[in-house]
Amino acid sequence: MLGNIVKNSLLLRGKSVLLRRYNVRQISYNSKSRWDEVTSRNQSTALENEDDLDKPIKYSTSKASTMRIDEYRDPHGDSVPWYQGLAIAGSFAVFLIYFCILREENDIDDMIYSDLNETLSRAKREEELKKKK
């Protein structure tokens, strides 16, 4: 069973590794040496990071030197077309011209302009007529 696990794990690393024969001692030694390499890499990067924190950062070599100030002030940037405001204003103007000037009055407008008492009395009469039928 251990042999199958080792073979399956080695399949991912390439065919040249599969051609060699491994026993348990070699595999444990290889994994231990790899673990030591990883921990030593982590320690060396940690030391480098500590050294980097003590040093000043050069603006000319940082990522901030290549960014435009507009990207900070306006996160949307140029995603809004220049004519969007004109299109909205034009659409609103056309709507107001149609709704306020060109449209003919209908029965709903007459109901809005009529007195509330008159509308309620008309609704009561219509309801009574429906009950009688």
Roughly how many Å apart are the termini?
Answer: 89 Å
**Average pLDDT:** 74
Oligomer: single chain
Tally of strands: 0
Task: Assign an overall shape.
Answer: elongated
Unreliable spans are none
The count of helical stretches stands at 7
Strand fraction: under 5%
Instruction: Return the structural class.
Output: mainly alpha
Using only CA atoms, what is the Rg? 40 Å
Question: How would you describe what is shown here?
Answer:
By secondary structure, this protein is mainly α. It has a domain at 105-132. It has helices spanning 2-11, 15-19, 24-54, 70-73, 84-102, 107-113, 116-132. The model has no long low-confidence stretch (mean pLDDT 74).
Quick description:
By secondary structure, this protein is mainly α.
What is the fold's blueprint, element by element?
Layout: H1 2-11, H2 15-19, H3 24-54, H4 70-73, H5 84-102, H6 107-113, H7 116-132
Keywords: Membrane, Transmembrane, Transmembrane helix
Organism: Mycetomoellerius zeteki
Transmembrane segments: 82-102
Descriptive terms for the model:
133 residues; mainly alpha
